[in-house]
Write a structure and sequence with these properties.
By secondary structure, the protein is an all-beta fold. It is 0% helix and 53% strand.
Length: 76
């Protein structure tokens, strides 16, 4: 498994959801490559914001602590 963590700093482009975040508390973006898929999550200290993952089974996403969604992948 490979994990990359990024912190948006001055001059970074952040999503509109990050606009409410103060400069002293920039959003954290984590990208994980595992089991043939990729997972991307954003958040602040102790608070998840947006997440999305994709692999051979489907695409999943979520916002904060709300129940997420899943779109299965089918082959033709």
């Amino acid at each position: 498994m490979r994990v990359n963590t990024f912190t948006a700093g001055a001059g970074s482009v952040v999503p509109a959801a990050g606009a409410a975040t103060t400069a002293s508390n920039p959003p954290i973006v984590t990208v994980t490559h595992d089991d043939g898929g990729v997972q991307v999550g954003t958040g602040g200290p102790g608070q998840p914001l947006l997440s999305v993952s994709a692999d051979g089974r489907g695409v999943r996403g979520g916002f904060s602590y709300e129940e997420g969604f899943c779109l299965p992948v089918t082959s033709g």
